[in-house]
């Protein structure tokens, strides 16, 4: 029999909130952000999506193998958190400085 714990409910609520947030981003914002990122951060900004995909893929593989609690899994979690923080800070900077002007 399946048991539902409070952590499962919190995780489902956070996933739903994240999906609602992602779907509410205007298309114009998403079209203008990549060009702004390259113009602001230079060509290095082009490497961030590839790095995030690589870390995400490795993290997914470790998750499927059940090895998230190992030192490599924890290092990948830290790397994913760092990349997420960089992305969120760039999105906020773009929104607060450029997008709201128009």
TrEMBL record:
This is Membrane lipoprotein. The chain crosses the membrane at residues 46-64, 76-96. Keywords: Membrane, Transmembrane, Transmembrane helix. It comes from Cupriavidus nantongensis.
């Amino acid at each position: 029999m399946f048991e539902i714990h409070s952590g499962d409910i919190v995780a489902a609520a956070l996933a739903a909130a994240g999906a609602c947030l992602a779907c509410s981003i205007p298309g114009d914002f998403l079209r203008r952000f990549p060009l702004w990122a390259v113009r602001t951060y230079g060509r290095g900004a082009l490497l961030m999506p590839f790095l995030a995909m690589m870390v995400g893929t490795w993290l997914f593989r470790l998750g499927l193998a059940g090895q998230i609690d190992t030192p490599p899994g924890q290092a990948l979690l830290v790397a994913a958190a760092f990349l997420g923080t960089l992305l969120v800070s760039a999105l906020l900077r773009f929104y607060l400085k450029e997008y709201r002007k128009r």
